[in-house]
Amino acid sequence: KMFQKEFFGHKQGGVCRSDDGCETWTPTIAGLPNNALTSHIVLDPTSPAGKRTLYITIINKGVYKSTDDGATWVEKSNGIDSNNRFTWRLALLPDGTLYCVVVAGHMEGDEKPGALYKSTDGAETWEKVALPKDVMDPNDLTFDPDGRLYLSCWPHIVDGKNIGGGVYASDDGGATWTNIYDPGVHVYTVTVDPQAPSTLYMTTFHAATMRSDDKGMTWKRLKGANFQWNQRCVPDPH
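The structure assignment produced for this chain is given below.
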């Protein structure tokens, strides 16, 4: 609902790099379009130091890739529908499969459903992954060490009822999905605990943060996290 056409015309955005612990920053934007509203960046940990492979999503512009530590960028959106390039989040699995979440467009008079894509060739080509039934607005995708996918979604209203939201899980790369949380709820993201992958944390836009210790089969609300629009849990690695 925050998408406004004027945002895409005059906001600069882009990517910056720091080599001194965030004391100073340098833009690394060669090859990026003007008004690059960058929403996510992932680094391929298997790429060599000094020539890191990076992927970014630019809202309304698609996916861009760098193979030189971000010094230069090249668009890699082949296969992503040009009618909706609201590319929002990326998920790079250990086997090299790259997923891209495209959110729904909500600009008045120009409504567009969201989508999910995957690439198995380093973003050279993309293929669409079928969304779960009723889902039109995916918001985030994450995974556990076994490759299980968790898709967080926002609902839409049909006949006065919220449908297509909640959380869905897939154990076959998105070929099939199982709903594991209320499809009427606006879910921002699911976080997998790296120390205990069966433990999940889920943030909703309903003044609740939830926890599951059985991969989403059951959930309980965390006490005290009552902020209305919780966005993301980040486990402390220590």
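Interim note for the steering committee: The longest helix spans residues 7-10. The chain has a mean pLDDT of 93.
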